[in-house]
Amino acid sequence: MPEISKMKKPDVKVVILGDMNVGKTSLLHRYTERKFRDTISTVGGAFYLKQWGPYNISIWDTAGREQFHGLGSMYCRGAAAVILTYDVTSWQSLAELEERFLSLTDTANHDCIYAIVGNKADLTDPRAQLPADPQSPAEGGEPGTGPRVPSACPTPPASPLSPGSPPQQVGREEAAALYGRVLRYKGLDEGSSLPADRMCFETSARTGYNVDLLFETLFDLVLPSILRKRTENQRSPTVDLEDYCEPPGRRRGCC
Amino acid sequence: MLNALPCSYWDGNMERDYPQKEGAEELNICDQPTEGPGAYADTLATSLSLLGSHMFPYHGEVVDRDVKTSVSTEDPVETLLPDPTAVERTSTLEAELSQKADTESQESEDIGLSAQSDEVVLAEASVNNGKDSSGEFVVALLAGSKLEEHCVGTEGTSSVLSESIAEEAPPLSHRDEDVTAESWRQHRKHVFVLSEAGKPIYSRYGSEEALSSTMGVMMALVSFVQSGDNMIRSVYSEERTVVFVQKGPLVLVCVANSRQSEQQLRDELLYVYYQIISMLTQASITRIFEHKKNYDLRRLLAGSEKILDGLLDLVDWDPSFLLAAVHCLPLPSSLRDSLSQILQKAITPNLVFSILIAKKQLVTIVQEKTVIEDARLEPADVHLLLNLIGASSAFQAGEIWTPICLPLFNPDCYFYAYISYLDPPECTVCLLLLSTDKEAFYAVAECKRRIEEAMVAQNSLSLIEKAQSYSVSQVGVSDLRHFMYKPFDVPDNHRQLTQFTSPEMEAPYSSAEEKMRLLDLYRYMHSRIHSSSRPLKLIYHVAERETLLAWVTSKFELYTCFSPLVTKACAITAITKLLRWLKKEEDRLFIRYPPKYSTTPNPSKSSRKSEQQDSTDNGFMSLL
Questions:
Q1: Which of A18, A124, B434, B505 would staple B415 via disulfide (CB 3.0–4.6 Å)?
Q2: Taking CB atoms and an 8 Å limit, are B400 and A67 in contact across chains?
Q3: Does A138 touch chain B (CB under 8 A)?
Q4: A255 and B399 in contact by Cβ < 8 A?
Q5: Integer angstrom CA distances of residue B147 from B2, B4, B214
Q6: Whether B320 contacts B383, CB under 8 Å
Q7: Mutant choice from B298, B309, B623, B624 vs A, greatest count of A C-beta within 10 A
């Protein structure tokens, strides 16, 4: 469609994945609006365009609910970076990343980069409790400004796999181990990929801890991918994200 | 526990229909609940009393009866009249109105007030027993006398019986409510959803886990009655009505003391069912439960509770649901037309509906040509869409892309909805584009940009901003306080979306309590008009603080509310004036000619369906 030139064409795509209630929308909201507030469970996926220097970065904030599972691979198609998000107070949410979300990234770019992000770090790490953003002192309209207790952000009832067990905290080592397994799943060589200590983050959307660091690190890392795509596009200017063709027969899994 | 019951009484009607012996057994079981003889009524009674002891601590007495033996000569609504001073003199009124209509017929023919004999004749006599469910059961839970310290976790049963209507500002989380507390029981309307295996799926108040035994008893009731090839429909007590709706593998239960008719509660439960379908589709729910009977559907609905909560609040506060019609934003027809044209031009393949919403009301809707030939968009589907938008707008800067099913349009298929606000950060004007193509996000988003540009060029946003609901004073009838007017299809436009119009609720209906009181009166009038056993065409109802007149003809349905001292003659004149005003304003109040576009170059009806079939489960089946 030639007339779509008016639209700010996204140069690159970043996707946020993870179980429900881990704080995907809150992370993005903290980054774009500099605020933390109660969010409602996302339906489907939400698309945002972020101006990063001369580039347009599209960010897909996806729903973590199982209801929307099938859409994940569509949101991930042609992604240059995937943010795999878990809740540091919920071991289950980390396990879900591997069980449910990793396979969705099959449609991402071959050189896609992966970040493992443990959100809600303010609940476990005293460093994360200090507001990272001095301009926003009190937290939005949130009623209780005192330190949250884990029960204030309940593990979703949707995980009957861990019946009644108290939330188990997730250490950085476990996240790093998952990062290793992600690389292996992708058939990437750990030596030539980005190291785990650069790609595993602990963040707090509530205080803003590490949130900018996360997004900005990723944006910088996807720049080469933008540049390469631009040069490719000069050769065949009609190729874009939507035209990415996945290998046939790959998606139909079980069921 | 039940033998603490003071001697209970039998309702005369019930007794007549019920063998005395059974009644005796009934009392028997109360004495020895564990050693019931296993007779049908006994087991049922036990389940009922279990349910009763949780839901209605005061009532322990139960009776079941077969509806076929008790053709409803008794009119439960009559006894529930909210106001003992209420009078209905419909027949005389009818005569007056028809007389009036006769004299006015010349000028008012076009506004539907003509004295067509079939319209003005009251339908009171036409008791329709035709489809009375001979095999279905109505179980009546008789309100016994007050019973103390009777059940699970209640002590100090205060006798606060009137439900305060001021529930509309609910505590932050209904999920954390203590389900054994008195306040939990006193909610005006409970709604439960469970699976056929008795697994809790949703509860409006309190967590499903805490209610799993209550829901288990509900399911026991349903399946017990079912085992006798019957279907449980409702349970009545003095204060509450329990309504059961079974849809496929789901059972929906409503426990209400809102004094609504059973049919109204049933319709509300259907909205809940349809909202669930809109998220999962009927086909996949059926398949899930075929696959695994005791599947915990909350896994798939987790996160959607707020959508259901929001729906139930809307059902209580928005008469659109009662009237099954869409309320659209009053706009000058020229503006509405120009907005429609903007939507009509911004199209892409597989786009089927373009809907513009402002201030939570419909502005305009444009449909794909072939779609409109197949079926029209049902008001209920629009309600579900509006509720979804309302419940998912937490973070409004983004563009949402989500699958959604329109259950009345096609309960088994998904559409893909693009939702975006055109006026951030205020977020009152919302564009909703529905496509059948899962991959069409970027193409549809481009349509939005074209629509946005055109609207900027025409300065539409600020014009929409100025539009607002109207005041009843514009009608210029002094005694008229409020009304709801729902015209039926006009003959030349059968495929029109059913709409209604209504002014703002102004003083004395400005407080939440008063609003709800008026809505309750309307619901009462509606239940009389639509009563299955004794439908009425015209009701003149003198209530304590206002006088209401409801009138249904083949052309419209009208509910009006007047000041209490209005005379009948005044009310009739007022309605004549109102109808004339509505006729004059209809271009502004309604979407008159919904435009269409064509996005499929080779329209074939089958293509629409086959495209979607493969995505009915939306991928989550693989997770089961």
A1: B434
A2: no
A3: no
A4: no
A5: 9, 8, 20
A6: yes
A7: B623
Q: Positive or negative, the Cα torsion across B152, B156, B161, B167?
A: negative
State the distance between the two ends of chain A, measured CA to CA, in whole angstroms. 36
> B433: which 2 tokens?
């584009």
Could you tell me if residue A211 is inside a domain? yes
Element (H, E) at A59: strand A55-62
What average pLDDT score do residues B282-294 get? 93
Classify B431 in phi/psi space as left (phi over 0), alpha (psi -120 to 50) or beta.
beta
- For the segment B410-446, what is each residue's pLDDT rounded down to a tens digit? 999 999 999 999 988 788 899 999 999 998 999 999 9
**Alpha-carbon gap: A129 to the closest alpha carbon of chain B (Å):** 24
Q: Which residues of B touch A7 (CB under 8 A)?
A: 445-446, 449
Q: Cβ A67–B399 below 8 Å, yes or no?
A: no
Q: Which residue has the tokens 């897909």?
A: A60
Is the CB of B299 less than 8 angstroms away from the CB of A70?
A: no
pLDDT value, residue B542? 95
Interface probe, candidates B199, B281, B386, B395, chain A, greatest A C-beta count within 10 A? B395
- Tell me how far CA of residue B41 lies from CA of B49, B224, B231, B252, in angstroms: 12, 10, 14, 23
Contact A81, A165 (CB under 8 A): no
Domains in chain B, ordered, with CATH?
Answer: 2-70+132-156+165-317 (3.30.450.70), 75-128+470-593 (no CATH), 326-468+594-623 (3.30.450.30)
List A residues 210-239 in contact with B (Cβ-Cβ < 8 A).
Answer: none
ipTM for the assembly: 0.79
- The strand pairing partners of B64, in sequence order, are B139
Contacts of B438 in chain A (CB under 8 A): 71, 74
- In the block, which residue shows the tokens 């040069």? A231
Portion 1-20 of A in contact with B at CB < 8 A: 1, 4, 6-7, 20
- The per-residue pLDDT string of chain A (255 residues; one tens digit each, 9 = 90 and over) reads 333 334 567 889 999 999 999 999 999 999 988 888 888 888 889 999 888 888 899 999 999 988 888 888 888 999 999 999 999 999 999 999 999 999 999 999 888 999 999 999 999 888 888 776 555 444 444 443 344 444 444 444 444 444 444 455 888 899 999 999 999 998 888 888 889 889 999 999 999 999 999 999 999 999 888 888 777 766 655 555 555 444 444 444 444
Enumerate the residues of chain B whose CB falls inside 8 A of the CB of residue A61: 395, 398
Inside any domain, residue A144: no
Tally Cβ neighbours within 10 Å of residue B85.
8
Chain B nearest C-alpha distance from A131 (Å):
22
* Structural domain that includes position A114: 10-137+168-243
- Separation between Cα atoms, residue B364 and residue B358, nearest integer Å: 9
CATH number for the domain harbouring residue A33: 3.40.50.300
10 Å CB burial of residue A236 (0-12, 13-18, 19+) is exposed
Count how many domains chain A has. 1
Of A44, A156, A241, the CB nearest to B400: A44
User: Crossing angle for the helix pair B305-317 and B262-280, nearest 10 degrees?
Assistant: 150
Higher-scoring residue by pLDDT: A169, B169 = A169
Q: Measure the CA–CA gap between B8 and B238, rounded to whole angstroms.
A: 13
- Please indicate, yes or no, if residue A254 is contained in any of the structural domains: no
Q: What chain B residue is nearest to A158 in terms of C-alpha separation?
A: B299
In DSSP notation, B371-396 reads HHHH-PPPHHHHHHHHHHHHHT-SST
What are the tokens at B403?
A: 């699958």
Report the share of chain B in percent with pLDDT over 70: 65
- Per CB-CB distance under 8 Å, the chain B contacts of A255 are 617, 621-622, 624
